[in-house]
Structures are given as C-alpha cells and as structure tokens.
Amino acid sequence: MLLEWSKITKTIEEIKEKLDSNDAIVLTAQELKNKIHDGEDVTIDDVDVVTCSTSGVMSGTTALLHIPVTEPGVFNKAEKVYINGVESYPGPCPNELLGSIDVIVYGTNHSQTIENYAGGSLIKDLLDHKEVDVQVFDTEGNEFNKTVTIDDIETARIIGTRMAFKNYNSFTNPSKKTQKSIFNATPMEGPFNSYSFSGCGDINPLQNDPEQEVINVGTKVLLNGAEGIIVGNGTRSQASPNLSIVADMKDMDPYYVGGFNTGLGPDVYDSVAIPIPVLNDSILNNLKVLNKDITLPVKDIHGRHLPIDEVDYSIWDDAQLRPTVDPDSCFNCIPCLAEIYCPVGAYKDHAIDEKLCYGCGNCVTVCPRGVPSMDMGSVKITSDGKEHTIPVTCRQSDKKRAMDLGLELKNRLLDKTFKL
Q1: CA distance 34 to 40
Q2: What is the C-alpha separation between 76 and 96, in angstroms, rounded?
Q3: Per residue in 171-212, pLDDT tens?
Q4: Nearest of 125, 97, 128 to residue 111 by alpha carbon
C-alpha cells in the first residue's frame, strides 16, 4: 500500500538526516510497548523508528550454496547430493565439468545419517564454521566426497519463501489420543492438558504494520543478524500474511538460526527484525497494538482446520522467557527426559546452554521432578460448553531471541551500520 502524501508528517529522508546527526529517537518494539503499558502518551514527536522483530519455527527456509567438490573436468554433472546426510538438490545451473555445484537445501529436509538433524541444523553448523561432509553422485553413478566449511563455499544465501507470519494458530488436544505434529515439540497429550503456540505477539513486525504501509518489496531487514531485503510477500500470504526474505548466509549469526525438533522430526527456526519509520499518526497508532488486542486462534492438534476457541497473545505478558535449573531436585533419571526431548539440544548434565536454549519450555513439561522450571502461563478456552484452563506446555517462538535481534537492529541504526 502506498502512503498518502497528505498523511505524511515526516519523510524517510528527514529521519535519515536525524539518524546521521544522532538526533533520531529509535525504540525497540518492546520499549514502545512498555511505555504504553506504563500509560505514557507517545506521540509522533517521541519516536522516529521502531524496530520490530520475531523468532520462530519457519519451515519455508531454503539455503542456496555453491560448493567446490573436485578439480574441474573430473565429473560431468551431479545427479544427487547429500550434505551431512541431508538431501540437497543440484542445479538449476548444469555445472558440467566445473568440479563445483549449485545446490538448494531445504531447512526441513531430514538427514539420512544423523538422528534429529535437518537443514536447519546444517545451516547452524555451517555458520559455526564446522566441517560438513558433502557426498555427490554424478549422472554416471560415480561417487565423490568432500569435507568443507562455510569458508570454502563461494556463495551461501538464505531464501525464505514464507517468514515472519503476522499471526499463527495455536493448538491443544481435546482427545485422549496422543497426536504427533510439527506444531509441538513432542507428541501432544490430551485431553485439554497441553497447549502449544507460535508468534511473538505485539513485537512481531507485521502485527505492527498490518496494512504494510512501510513493510514492502525492497525493505531492508535483519535476517538472522544479516542485512537482507524483502522480495515480496511469502507463499500462503492471502490466508496468513508473511514475507519472503533474502540475505547472505555468511553474514548471519548462528545464535539466531538453527534446528528445532518437533513431534514429526527436525525443522528450522529463524529470526527477523524490521525497522518501521514513524512517518505519520496512522503508522504510530498501528505500532501501539498490544498483546491483548491480537487474537490467537486455538485449533485441534488433529487438524489445523478444526477451530475450538480464540485467546490472545497476553500469554507473553507475564511469562518467563528462560527456565532456571535446580540440580538438587534431580533424581538422575535414566534416561533424562529433559535432555532427550529438548528440541534444540540445550539441556545437558543438569544445565542449560544459554546460547542454544530456545525458551520453548519442553524441558519443564517433560521433567517429572521439576528440575528445570519456568512460568509459561496458561489459557482459558471453552469447548462443548465446558471451560478448560490449559497450561502452556510448548512455545515454538522465542521472544527473547526476537527482542535481542530488535535491540541489535536499533543499535545498528544508531551507530549507522544499518541504513534505512
């Protein structure tokens, strides 16, 4: 949607000049929401840019890689490629006799050789500069093997086909029958005793610009810490607005991206931050949305087409974002359920790796002794005339990572390393 010039009270150029002269007021979305919660009357003179952000499981993540395999002339054309056992797709360029290949790797493709490992884990390993094994079969059936790091890869790019959804569904299980799903970290039990949701609520970019007055094709963003651009709205946007984003993988921070194991196997999470320049009161009013104003549909985990009720994103308002651990409560269960079912591999030896932890709460849900603990809140829904209070048992979005990236974008705007 194009801005109506009659409504513009600031221009992008004016805000750029204020940033260049260190006069701009930049707030993260969370800082703005805190002001509103505190009853402050925020006007267009009080803020120039708001950095909005989200982090969550984003299955529409693809890596485009150009990988050296052999010296030129050794093989004609690659037919099948596996990287750490993750099936990758050679082409579309023929690459005849070059000794190197272009491949596309889906973030959701599962490894055939490494358990609970998929494209998201592979992307994180590459960003951590770990060696990965490349296995190539050419059109004549010959096999070639190469070990590479991201430093050996000439081109590495992330293409998001659908990212940063404006809103999501949430899920519970009204049945006694346990159900596996990508929408929960483990098979979801019932009836009405578990609840999983995604989305960062009122700091999410598209929630703060619902008509996309500012967020458009060509808008610069941070994708996993790398500067990228929006190339359009993502797939399925007509039903659920989201974005297609491209960025250089080599500039990304592995903290913001990785694998996330769901009830149906490993998936991939990403983090996105977008600056919203406050050009007029209409944009500012949209930025004042709060969690309580954002509906969150509740669906039956047996099928996302089966609506049950609606809640809102105020479940984030008082929830803790990271668990604490009390090792003295541990009975040293074998196996340790918290360790087995941590979807990002962060829980080990009665401790949590803070760099890996995604704040999903699954360790809290599965541990019978309460060794890891975290207040994740609950929701109240009505089904068949009965009211149910259901504890949140899994979060597939990480508000802490989202806020971290929103703050990083704010700091880059202020130190002029990111330009509107």
Answers
A1: 9
A2: 5
A3: 999 999 999 999 999 999 999 999 999 999 999 999 999 999
A4: 125
